[in-house]
Amino acid sequence: MSTLTWRPDILDGYEAADLGAPAVAPSGKADGPLTRTLIRRAATPERPRAVAVIVHGYNDYFFATHLSDELAAAGCVVYAVDMRRAGRSLQPGNQPHHIAHIDELGDDIADATAAARDDALARGLGDLAVVVHAHSTGALAAAVWASDRPDPALAALVLDGPFFGLALTAPRRALMRAMPTVARFTPGTVMDPARSPYTAGLLQRGWVFDVAWKSPEGVGATAGWLAATRAAQSRAAAGLHIRVPVLLASSDSTGPDRLDNPLHASQDTVVDVAATARVATLLGDRVQPVVIEGAIHDLALSAEGPRTRYFDALRAFLGSVL
User: Fold this and answer.
1) Which pLDDT belongs to residue 29?
2) Angle at CA 239, nearest 5°, toward 236 and 241?
3) Which of 1, 19, 89, 240 is deepest in the core (most CB within 10 A)?
4) Cα gap 245→316, rounded to integer Å
């Protein structure tokens, strides 16, 4: 039964609760206390069909209430998690988003889904199955988690712009090959300034979020994070075994992450969608790829047309699996 202490969230109509520190934090870096934050949409569907947990990506946190509204309209009791060193969970001294292994994020997803189910039961909404909607690095972590640690309560997985690969230049490929060695000795060293024209473009197009938690200047990527995500990408490329239905959503094209890119607002400027297509067939036997023309990296933050097409696909998918 839920023992969480809820408080008003920074978003109207939402509440937040601390999940506390993870049981194990193999980050290899002492950078202040760790916690995770569960967020819930106060309003619930009249006839709940599932619990939905929204999982953010890198340089990110939960703010997309319009996505939450879509999930609620599909019959979901909606929760979100701000994972360790991110958003509401960022503590003094933390290196934002630093990890040393993808399982650290998997632990945060597992703890959030378990707490969300318990809380929904405590609210009298029933013993509900779980849908995880995960974006970018969160989607990479969710895919590995769902494969390695199958949860009987998990009914479906939605991967929005998953971080399965980058279109790398030769120098950056060399840098990535060196990351396991660097991370073994200095996992907390910032190796890549990771500036984010992608995030600056979101602000220009009118999306509203806290730039302290989702910064247009980006978040410096540590050797640990780079090695961990690269290893997880290799895992996915070698094949996973996700047993539940998966909606794998991506843009139709990849382009440079520069504000002078004329297609900056209508293509994925963060991940390589060709890598997403290659991995799609390797995740499991129940994967439904959907390619949305004109979408950006976070399909839920695309322009109105592609965003509507993505939400149509999301509703259809949830209708088929719940």
Assistant:
1) 53
2) 100
3) 89
4) 13
pLDDT of residue 190: 72
Q: For the domain 7-321, what is the CATH superfamily, name and number?
A: Alpha/Beta hydrolase fold, catalytic domain (3.40.50.1820)
- pLDDT at site 31: 72
How many whole angstroms separate alpha carbon 268 and alpha carbon 255? 6
Using CA atoms, how far apart are residues 158 and 131, in angstroms rounded to an integer? 8
Short-list 97, 74, 67, CA closest to 298: 67
How many angstroms separate the Cα of 10 from the Cα of each of 14, 63, 151?
A: 8, 9, 31
- For the whole prediction, is pTM greater than 0.85? yes
Structure tokens at 297: 């990296």
Residue 136: count of CB within 10 angstroms of its CB: 25
- SS3 per-residue string spanning 105-164: HHHHHHHHHHHHHHHHHHCCCCCCCEEEEEECHHHHHHHHHHHHCCCCCEEEEEEECCCC
Residue 69 φ/ψ, nearest 5 degrees = -60, -40
